[in-house]
Design a protein that fits this description.
15 helices; two-stranded antiparallel sheet; alpha/beta; 7-stranded mixed β-sheet; 335 residues
């Protein structure tokens, strides 16, 4: 047994993991807090939510050692969304993606949760597991994990009424706990309309909302999407055709604003084609990008330029400007 498995007093630390069914967590919390039934109707501060869940687990199992958090979500064709790409680099967090079909239904997520729980138990990687889920399909995996000596703690989200977890899942748990509305509230926010997003960009006053109104993602998602009608290879080929041509100065030190801006536009164009308009719509209203996405944008721009932008803050701004010019043009948002 590794020295890492003992605390300073020589006591064996019981290693645990957290397995979180994001579809259940988000849907239950959104219904409880916002009366929302679609993920397009709200935003989640997932980074801080995960951090707080980890802190809660440490309080629940004070003598334990966290192995990692498994974050089970879904994405269309398993292409990560903006939010999922932001979560993926977090320490001790493993993002697992199932498929999201055309009707918004998750496929393969439950199977991944069951497999990971069973494998972790079978290989003695954990002694405790916190399972945040509600589906009865989890019961066989819970029973198998328990047969290997793992204690399974089932967490659920406070239901607005009745119950939102399968009765058998609750029965099989070693312990249960409830995440309350007060716990979830800081991390869930109802998003505005397309008109509000555009108004925010141009600085115009926002008219009082008249519910019900569609969210930006739902408005954009209903419009024709090139990514849906072509294969990934075709999308990349079309993006390749849009790559700007340019010639840098001989000494390679001067960066032309028009050139750099065009590179930002090209990256935006490629992302729209390959990642889909709906995912790019999640970046609106802008103009600030999540740190992880901003870094990806700059890295791709540097690859296209063959030139580091580390010492050129002005050029980095030009790249971002070009990116937003293309995105705003895609969604008919005037600046």
């Amino acid at each position: 047994m590794s020295i890492l498995d003992h605390d300073c007093f020589g006591k064996v630390a019981r290693r645990y993991t957290m397995l979180i069914d994001v579809g259940y967590l988000y849907a239950a919390a959104a219904e409880l807090l916002l009366q929302a039934s679609s993920r397009r109707e709200y935003k989640v501060d997932a980074e801080n939510l995960i951090t707080t869940l980890i802190e809660r687990a440490a309080q629940h199992l004070p003598d334990g050692e966290l192995l990692r958090v498994y974050w089970f979500d879904a994405a269309r064709d398993r292409v990560p969304t903006v939010d999922q790409r932001v979560i993926a680099p977090m320490e001790f967090v493993k993002v697992r993606l199932g498929n999201l079909n055309s009707r918004g239904q998750q496929k393969g997520v439950d199977a991944m949760i069951r497999t990971d729980l069973e494998q972790l138990a079978r290989h003695r990687a954990i002694q405790e597991a916190i399972l945040l889920a509600g589906d009865e399909d989890m019961v066989p995996a819970v029973e198998i994990a328990q047969a290997y000596g793992v204690r399974v703690h089932v967490w659920g989200v406070e239901p607005p009424y009745g119950t939102n977890q399968a009765e058998r899942l609750v029965w099989e748990a070693d312990t249960t706990d409830t995440i309350t509305a007060e716990f979830c509230r800081p991390y869930f926010t109802k998003i505005g309309t397309a008109a509000e997003a555009a108004a925010k960009i141009v600085g115009a006053p926002i008219a009082a909302p008249t519910p019900p109104q569609p969210s930006p993602a739902s408005v954009f998602g209903q419009r024709h999407s090139v990514a849906v009608t072509m294969s990934a290879a075709q999308a990349l080929e079309e993006a390749e055709q849009a790559r700007p041509s340019f010639v840098r100065s001989r000494n390679g030190e001067r960066l032309d604003q028009e050139t750099v801006t065009s590179i930002g536009e090209y990256v935006a164009h490629k992302w729209i084609l390959t990642r889909g308009r709906e995912n790019i719509a999640d970046l609106l209203p802008g103009p600030t990008l999540p740190t992880v996405i901003d870094k990806e944008l700059l890295v791709e721009a540097e690859k296209e330029l063959g030139y580091s932008l580390r010492d050129h803050p002005g050029a980095r701004i030009w790249v971002r400007d070009g990116f937003w010019e293309r995105v705003n043009r895609e969604f008919d948002i005037e600046r």
